[in-house]
Every structure is written in C-alpha cells, then in structure tokens.
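Help needed: design a sequence for this.
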C-alpha cells in the first residue's frame, strides 16, 4: 500500500516532466526546427539538392531568370502519383518560357526509388532528391504533395497544399503572367 501511494504521488510529476519534454521538442526533428509554411510575397527559402545525375541544384540558381514551380512529392504517395501526369503536361506547356519545374522527392530510398519511377512514367521535368525530408522542415509542409510557384525575383507567388489541378486556366494564367515579367538581369541592364 505504501508503494502504491508513492507511485501515485510521483505519477503526476513524471507525466508533467514528459509533457514538458514533448512541448520543448515540438516542431523539431533531429535538432532541426520546422519553419512555418512560406506565404505569398515572402522570399522563397533557398535549398540545394542533387538531381538524378548527382548534380547539385539550388533554387537561387534560377532567381532573376526563371519562374520556378517547386513540387514536394514521393513515389509512395497516391495523391502525388495522381498529380504527376498533370505536372508533366504543365511542364511541357511552359518549358522554355522562362519556366523551370523542380520536383523534390522525399523518398528515403532516393535515386533507387525515383529514377525508375520517372523513367517508367516518362516524366521529363527535373527531379531532386531529399532523402532526409529536410525540405518539409524548411517549407513547413504537412504532407505531400505540396507546390510553390516562385516568381523571377525569388518570391512565393502561389501555394498549393495537396494535389493541384494544373489544367486550371487561372493557375496557368498566373504562370504565364509571371513568365512574361522581364528577367531581373534584363531589367538591371536598362
């Protein structure tokens, strides 16, 4: 009985301690803090990942030159698999028009999972590999797929949480309008 009383006395203290630890760690993974999702008008957060050939690609490589369509996805995600054919059509429609698509896969298996999937489905947009899921912390995403359209100045112009309908005329008009803005290099030469 005395041991039971001791246990009941200490139980709330142990629970309180656990709650404090959980709250302190909330939003962190491996010591990395989850940032809030970027909002429209905010500067896009630069990132660097390798593509399927092992070449490093950064968002900032395109700032001032191209509109970026940044998609976060995974081969195991049913919604992503449903959305990707629409992304391919969007890419085919706008590529070469100051537009680049970067599809960041969060597959833990990396190239082993992504390369055969891209090849099998004949996707030609650029796939980048994030085997640690760090983009989810950087962009505050809550799942996959999520997409961000980034203007030539490197600002977030549109956010889509979940699979998007990329044949929507309003979304395509937004992308067309952004691609028609002058490049920053051209603008600076004037």
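Sure. Designed sequence:
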């Amino acid at each position: 009985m005395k041991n039971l009383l001791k246990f009941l006395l200490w139980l709330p203290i142990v629970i309180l301690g656990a709650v404090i630890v959980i709250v302190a760690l909330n939003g962190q993974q491996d010591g990395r803090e989850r940032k809030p999702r970027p909002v429209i008008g905010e500067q896009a957060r630069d990132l660097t990942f390798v593509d399927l050939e092992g070449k490093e690609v950064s968002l900032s490589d395109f700032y001032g030159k191209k509109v970026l369509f940044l998609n976060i996805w995974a081969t195991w995600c049913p919604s992503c698999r449903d959305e990707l054919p629409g992304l391919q059509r969007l890419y085919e429609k706008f590529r070469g028009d100051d537009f680049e698509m970067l599809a960041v896969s969060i597959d833990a298996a990396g190239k082993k999972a992504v390369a055969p999937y891209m090849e099998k489905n004949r996707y030609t947009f650029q796939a980048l590999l994030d085997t640690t899921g760090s983009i989810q912390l950087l962009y505050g995403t809550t799942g996959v797929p999520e997409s961000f359209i980034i203007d030539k100045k490197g600002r977030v112009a549109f956010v889509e949480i979940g699979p998007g309908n990329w044949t929507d005329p309003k979304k395509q008009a937004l992308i067309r309008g952004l691609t028609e803005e002058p490049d920053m290099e051209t603008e600076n030469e004037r």
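The first strand starts at residue 28 and ends at 29.
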